[in-house]
Amino acid sequence: MTADDRNDDPTRALDDFVLRMRPPAASSEGAPDLSEFSARLNADGPARHRPDAPAPAKARGGVLRSGQRWNVDDVEDVPLVEVPRVRPLPTDIPLVTLPIVDLQAEEALTALAPEVDWPAVAPDTAPDGTEGQDATEEANRFAASQFNAETLDARLPVWQPDPRALRPRPLQDPRLLSQWQPGAWIGAVRQILEASTEFVTTAQGPAIETHAPQHLLLLWPPQRMDAPLLGRWPQQVRLWAGSPGEPDSTAVQALLATLPADANLWLQPDAEAVDWALGAEILLVHEAGLRPAQIEGLRQFIGAEREASFAQLNDAYQRPDGPHVVLRR
């Protein structure tokens, strides 16, 4: 690199470092030509070698190729790093020994037909028929056992779970009958009033009072010995507060509490066989401890029952062509 081509960029200081470290290749043409080198030394003319010529000013900074400016005070000397000499790669070809291939022997083996080991398809001795007979008898015995098992299953009753064990209810009172029996008392239960709330005046001031649904409990003594024919007038009428829905154990216990200890109770399943309006009217006339809400509810219930009876009277009966006869539709 000549003085003219010199660059002040420190990042280019190690350019051609590896080339300069390599020994020059021996020239087969003899000594190198230094004429060009001498011309480069004298490129600046005689003024370069004058002793009175001023020394060139030391560069104080510059601009890198990336456009960044640098100052000489920012340049730090780095230690000299010795780069190991790179060993040239081997140029000799390794000797590879390949096995000897006999082409004629290979072609001879290829021409041979392959040997296939087939399994034996026929037994050494012919069957005498006993094996087939044994297999048939075994199949007959298995079919007979299956038929007998199915026949036995068809004759046995199909197992069913006990409904009483599956229903999460307490045990039923033994005096409550599921079917009518002679000498049994007859009871009837029906909800007549919904749950309600009312404002009441107490010693502490006004308060809200909540009332459970009201049920009408009717009770008849044992009737005829051949059928549970109800009389029109019940022997006992009672207003009972309880949860809605079908009569629960508390309603049954309320009825059983008024019976003799050895008496049985049967609940009337037919609601139309009971004159509910009559029972509510008996309670309205004779029960002195009724609250205003209960009195109003009983009156509304009696009116609704009377209207339903009148509608049924018109719809359920008719007069045929014959005189003085009215028949039920």
Structure commentary:
With 329 residues, the protein is α+β, with helices and mostly antiparallel strands. Among the domains are: 1-24 and 38-76, no CATH class; 181-328, no CATH class. The chain is 29% helix and 16% strand. The strands form four sheets. Strands 3-9-4-7-8 form a five-stranded mixed sheet, with helices on both faces. A two-stranded antiparallel sheet has the order 1-2. The longest helix is centred in the middle third of the chain and has 26 residues, at 130-155. The radius of gyration is 63 Å and the shape is elongated.
- The protein's oligomeric status is single chain
Q: State the secondary-structure class.
A: alpha+beta
Report the helical percentage: 25-40%
Strand order of the largest sheet: 3-9-4-7-8
β-strand number: 11
How many helices? 8
Outline = elongated
Instruction: Output mean pLDDT.
Output: 76
Order of helices and strands: HHEEHHHEEEEEEHEHHEE
Largest sheet: 5 strands, mixed
What share of residues are in beta strands?
15-25%
Low-confidence stretches are: none
**What radius of gyration results from the CA coordinates?**
63 Å
Tell me the distance between the termini.
134 Å
